[in-house]
Design goal:
This protein has three helices and six strands. The chain is α+β, with helices and mostly antiparallel strands. The chain has a single domain, classed as 60s Ribosomal Protein L30, Chain: A (2-Layer Sandwich), CATH 3.30.1330. The chain has a six-stranded mixed sheet with strand order 1-2-3-6-4-5, with helices on one face. β2 and β3 form a beta hairpin.
Amino acid sequence: MKIQTLTLLATMLAVASCTGAKPPEEERRYFEPRTVADTTAGPFSAAVQVGNTLYLSGDIGVDDKLQVPATAEAEATAVLNSIQETLRKSGMTMDDLVYLQVFCSNVAHYEAFNGVYRTYFKREFPARAFIGSGPLLFGARFEVQGIAVKR
């Protein structure tokens, strides 16, 4: 699922190199960082901030025991709460999101997700893709990843 994020980053770097622009030499800040030495968890950090831009890893709405909530609405709430908490840790809000990808194991959950999703924003909605993905980890219905830029 992280391949899309890597593809997006590679495309951005390719465009920058074609225009002669150099990527900024900015410090990176990691949220829930993991390193190659950490073999007890997945090989990714929850988010990485470079300058005013935050790159959010895919997140699913399971509980501490990796259990999926009973309803699509409860799961959408859980995953969006998790995204919101990561944004808060970086000093951002849901309204700083500029792009989201929502992977969904069954697109029949589209309206249930949107009903919850709409309640998390006070301003404009970010650009978004809602992608039918097939099975997700732990039987989740949704996995959400995104990019936020501090206003």
